[in-house]
Amino acid sequence: MSSFLPASLLHGLLAMAALASSGCMGMIAAEPETPETLGPRPVGVTTMRVEDDARDRKLTVEVWYPAAERSAAEPTVYSVEAIGTTVARLKSAAGTHRDAAPSREEGPRPVVLLSHGAGSTRYGNASLAEVLASHGYIVAAPDHVGHTMSSHVFGIDNTERAQSAFDRPIDLSRVLDALEERSRGSKFVLKGLVDTNRVAVAGHSFGGAAALGMIGARFDADRQARECKKNDADRRCAAVPVFGPGQYRYRDPRIGAALLITPAGFDLYRADGIAEVDAPALVVGAERDTTTPYLEYSKPIYESLKAPHYLLDLEQAGHLTATDVCEIVDSVGFPAKMGGDPRAEDGCGGRYLSHKAALDRVASAALPFLDLHLNHRVAAEKELALALGLPTAEPVRVASAQPARPLALSLDAPQASTDATRTRAKTGLELEAKRRLSPAPVEERR
Question: Is the residue at 93 inside a domain?
């Protein structure tokens, strides 16, 4: 269960907090370059709060969406907060405007749930969210309580890390529940526009592990417990009481595809657990990643998948290259780089592929991938092959290029027997109609 936020950045945040208390806040990051993959639609963004009373969790969620028209006003500046103060500010790469009127021309839009890395923020992949929204997607990114910048300032132990691995998939399900309910109301900016029959999940690093959980990866708590009897120093031992006993599998059957960006999770789920994933997945690996090394995480995750799966290999990229975290570090400024920990800049700077180039490569593959598996556009298969550098005369390496029915509506996701299954606690956000029409995410214990 890998984490990427280093102590040097945490010390920097503390220093910035001290400055902020004196009236100084995080500098605005450099002017972002406009992505080549930015789509034709203007982009709006809104913030919503999701309360899960059953788990006593309150989630702040950023939601990007296609807007009705462009605005002459100044674009949004994202304020990244930690320990109660603004520590960094990022300019929108897409000219996004807050609470802009949404486009209604094409009806309900597909959804992408986006999970940030360990010790990061809902803005950690803001540029990717904007690009997806400019192509017609609604993108919802929560701050995962207990695993954000604020949480890491004073450290997070192995038990808390394991708890976050357990909580994150449920967080994402609750965000989707809230989008669905509010879309049916009259006050939400996206009323009538959320299509929960077309949903994907995406995640970076620890968020990639959460995405694996959403599409059915299994954790073998019993095996881990046996191993921990021989080596109790293994930090995965903390996951046993959180996930166990038995074999744990959380699967939200509404999720039809997954985008995994330099993902963690192979050490938690292992090859046999990842083999139980039953939705298409696009894995983005970075060959110069030293946080979740390519040969230890991205490549074996890809090789373990049995459902339709694809690999995008970023040769000159590190762990953070395709995210906005490098810009956050730059905005925090010099204090974030104190201590010399290389993970603070794993993938940042002139020695790597530029952020814009990495973002464009990821988006160039992600867009046809989502178009193929959420929108079922057959022509997207060839576009995906081109983005992955595959010979277009040969079929893309998938088990099934186009499902017979939308994967997000699959009703045959593996279920445990009644006495071995504990359905997730419902919250007040869920409607009775949803209970009847959509199978609830399930936790299997075998």
Answer: no
